[in-house]
């Protein structure tokens, strides 16, 4: 792809807010002058971010970066924000659109990997895998006994998906191998999912009442913030397992802690939290019936490399007059 010059005749300037895999960096350096925050593990501090985007034509961001009016004020030349995530609740999309800035994301490449993680949480929570490991590590494994660490079967159970987009559909396909009965609730019905997996659409509350596993995979929006609270947990079966691999604020976390303390739902598997990262002193960390992992949905080497590379391709395409593969908005 030929590099398109900026109005001042130079190559476009790109800023990466994190150290990325070499493969992704090379996509950017082939077409752009590159500046980057050089830590892989630590987000760029806000003040440094606002300084660094000052002369950037495009910015590759992570879900740890807030992209809002303040960011845009600090980045007057910015024409594209390429977010390395499928979710983009860290971005004020309307503000970008108003200012003519394109937003892109990284769907598809993480679908199957994230569905695997959902499955890991379902199995681990229902079969008490982490509790079992903790027992051994603490030297507390006594005699085999009939009811020791007994959990609930995944096979043959009823799975209720709240959110049936790409990842929800990939979870549903896996459920067929476990002989599960499939229910889903979504903004709109999905005839394709129903035909492929036999999943039946249900109203939200009915799905909560009747499912053995309730799996949340909705994007975080104004409508889904706080979707799961005390009332919703009270509707679930006392044996239900609740899994959230969407975004933390979709759940009222204080309500979930209380609900898990009372044992309804019976257990939870959580990849995401209201405010990340959480520490060892977080109330969920003290609950044996909460299986908690630090936002690992897409965390395989191959998928994270694919996400970074796709974000880089989106960025470069937007800066060089090409067609970015994954536009989110339609800026003026
Ligand atoms: C996303 O892409 O939105 C995930 O949460 C991180 O992989």
**What would you report as the Rg, rounded to the nearest angstrom?**
22 Å
Mean pLDDT score, rounded? 97
Roughly how many Å apart are the termini? Answer: 24 Å
- Strand arrangement within the widest β-sheet reads 8-7-6-9-10-11-12
Number of helices, where a helix is a run of at least 4 consecutive DSSP H or I residues:
12
Structural class: alpha/beta
Helical amount: 25-40%
Shape: elongated
Low-confidence stretches: none
**Which distinct ligands sit in these coordinates?**
(2R)-2,3-dihydroxypropanoic acid
Number of strands: 12
Helix and strand element order: EHEHEHEHEHHEHEHEHEHEHEEH
How much of the residues is beta strand, in percent? 5-15%
Describe this structure in words.
It is a single chain. The chain is of the alpha/beta class and 332 residues long. The chain is 34% helix and 14% strand. The strands form 2 sheets. Strands 8-7-6-9-10-11-12 form a 7-stranded parallel beta sheet, with helices on both faces. Strand 1, helix 1 and strand 2 form a beta-alpha-beta unit. Helix 1 packs parallel to helix 12 and helix 5 crosses helix 7. Bound molecules: (2R)-2,3-dihydroxypropanoic acid. The site of (2R)-2,3-dihydroxypropanoic acid has 7 residues, from loops.
